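U., I forgot to send this yesterday:
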Amino acid sequence: MNKKSSLPSGNWTTYQWVIGHLRPYRGSMALIIICGLLASAGELLAPYLIQRLIDHVIPEQDKVGFYQIIGFLGGVFLLILLCSLTRNILQSRVSASAARDLQYNTLLHLRKLGFAYYEQRPVGETLSLMNHKVQSAEQIFKRFFPDIVQLTLFLTAAAVLLLYQSALLSLIIIPCFATYYLFGPKLDSKFSRLSRAMAESRTTFDKKVYESVSGAREFRAFGAEEWDIDRNRSLFKDVTRTTLSWVFIGHFRWSLRGFLFQIGTVCIFVLGYYLIQWNWMTVGQFIAFLLVYGIFMFRLSWLISQFIEQNMMLQEVSLLYELVHTLPLLEEPALPEKIGQIQGALTFDNVQFAYPGRPPVLNGISLDIRAGERIAIVGTSGNGKSTLLKLVDRFYDPTGGMIRLDGIPLPHISFDDLRGSIGYVFQDTYLFGNTVRENIRFGNPDASDEEVVAAAKAAYAHTFITELSDGYDTVVGERGMKLSGGQKQRIAIARMLIKNPRILLLDEATSALDNVSENAVRDALQQLLAGRTTIAVAHRLSTVMDYDRIVVLDGGVIAEQGSYNELMERRGLFYQLAAGEKQQGHGQSHDIPGGGEAVVLS
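Result:
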């Protein structure tokens, strides 16, 4: 399994990592904060213009001063509008760009984690991380970080102005917030726990939705659609219940702060009345103070809300942080050996392997494969046949022993050199929801249309492709759902032919096909295998009878090996497997030289 990074975890560490994606846009981010501060300065200036209007212009009936203040107020509001508009446009652009960078970097890291990660994680979980968690990070880029910086600077300036205007009235703010913090931390803690629970329930629900969509065929075939709907309904109820609790606590916190804010306003009116009566302040000063106090308290409540909501977002983003800081199971060699022209000779030297937390699968495989030799791997299920192929392509590394390619240990070869020389044909071929042409060209993106057609002809696929509605430009649908199993396999073989690898790994490439499709694919395979080192996990005798060597695995070791005729004459485990299949009546029978019939191996 993949290893966790030793980096410290926590919201602050996660926050530093997220904000680090804004570094390429720090100029734009500084402009965003400046625009926000200018707009806020305009808001702070307006109350003092109103104070002058009340204390001087109106009592003195100064018409010139009145129009000057009105014009100045108009200019202030225009400045606020222009700064807010510029700020919003820049915020959207920067947050979208930073989120795109984060998503791209996450995708690159997913590629580094390799095959082992995908075997251990549901696809729905990964999709949730790539979508919802990146959206949470985008909210930090767009709203929380610039707002918190701007609000902190704004509140500092506003507090200085309030103290300058009236230190006595400013003291009323202290008991209001002291009262809130008798209850607030408990509410904030409850809100954070509910935020985490809501994020987890949403991820679980997303995974279930993906399962329902991807498994729609099986649910319908088994008549289990209502069962699946019930499971979705149960999870949806959990999401709804958690979300409603989260909304209630959030509104209650906001309402409590609002109530204390109103209490403070009443106290300011009472104390302000006496200060005016005692001539300690003018009516205009009191109105200006009251307006600034309202702005200050609103922004202070907003800042607290931003901190709490940002903390919720960070809890979601922390899952993305953990993913990006998960260390790959396999590392690219720092100084890979130059391998030159790959011949395809493979050596297994006492190779052992066990999946994490499971019993050993391979218990000491030693095998020399010559360049261009065709090897078939057979044996009962669970004996490590497919695992052997994964080790050759470095999906995993052996837990003991070593595999060498042309005499060089696989861990010393770069991934590009190794996997560029290997063609892997799976039992379940993955085709992209694109055209036939692009699916074949996937093996070599630089291939011309003529090379695509030539590969299709060599794979015995050209005839059926030309009979499709749009020929090579026919869209095959998601995972190639518009094509039969045999057609998909022949396109996969054409893809390998155009890649022209030196080594071929075939993982039961014909086991799911009917007899007619198997014959067509077998003919295509003859073209593909010519002159290439081949290791095939064999399911049917028809696919291994003419191989150079057959290797029988049993108990994680090589029980016997030899040509087809040699193994049948030896009447060992290979012969028993064939005879056992015949007795069970499975599969298609084939003549066994000197021994009647044999049938497909499983």
